[in-house]
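Known limitations

Files may contain more than one protein. Parsers should not assume a single record per file. Below, a two-record file is shown to illustrate correct handling: read the sequence, read the token line, then continue until end of file.
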Amino acid sequence: MIIKSKRSFLCVLQLKGLQSLVNLKKLPTWAKPDSDEPPPWAKGEGKENSSKQNFEVPFFVYLLASAITAIAAIGSIFEYVNQRPVFGIVNTDSILYAPLLGFFAFTGIPTSAFLWFKSVQAANKEADEQDKRDGYL
């Protein structure tokens, strides 16, 4: 049945069962009704891979550590500028005041940037592995 309108054509097909749909559209072997093959994202499930014994830190751990380090570094700069005691313990007249804040500020910002970079790398690696499991790569 074809319905004509001024702007477009609308075609309506009446199919008899799933076989007609399979003939119209090429389905992968795992998607056919009688197939026992699992989909690409489920192929590795149920198998214990003993060769993968190394633990990789998830990306959100790197990201959280980066945020905490950046907050500590910026906070150290504010404490130095405002002449507040470090963590309420080391007073401004202490010999350790400037070196301690300088250590947090000068090492914290590059460390935070490095941890953020590692977070992006880990997230990209996890995404690539998921794409491989899904059959996209």
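...continuing to the second record:
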Amino acid sequence: MKRFENRSVITRMDYPNDNIGRDLKINEIAQAIHVINRRAKVVPDSSALYSLKYAVIKKLLLEQRATKLCVHRFKRVHQLHSIRDSRIDIQTIFVVVSCGEYTFHYPAEKQDIKDLKFEKKIVSIRNPRSEMSYASAKRLLLQYLQ
């Protein structure tokens, strides 16, 4: 902190990355989304984390920093807990989004289903490993949304 030694007040101009929404590299944002997405899969109440992920992806799409690739139908079979051999087929339609080196998905809206091409089979896409901590990822995404 040598540059602040002779000053009693630190101003906003002292922080070059204060406008984090414009200065961040797209891969840092995508890596943070990936960390949040991984965390959301293991916590009991993940709705806040998925909402954060969705809000950031929507902002990236509006800024044209992410691209919608296709629409994909994902079929899951759920075992009912009350009846031993009963199964329910649940079909969910997702939008696949590319952001930097990462790909994500979120539930499709009606307009997405009309505009984007349906992919029957998607080749398994593995996102790169991320070394970012959950706390720094969440902080970074919240700053980006401001």
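Parsers that stop after the first record will miss the second one. For reference, the second record is described as follows. The chain has a mean pLDDT of 77.
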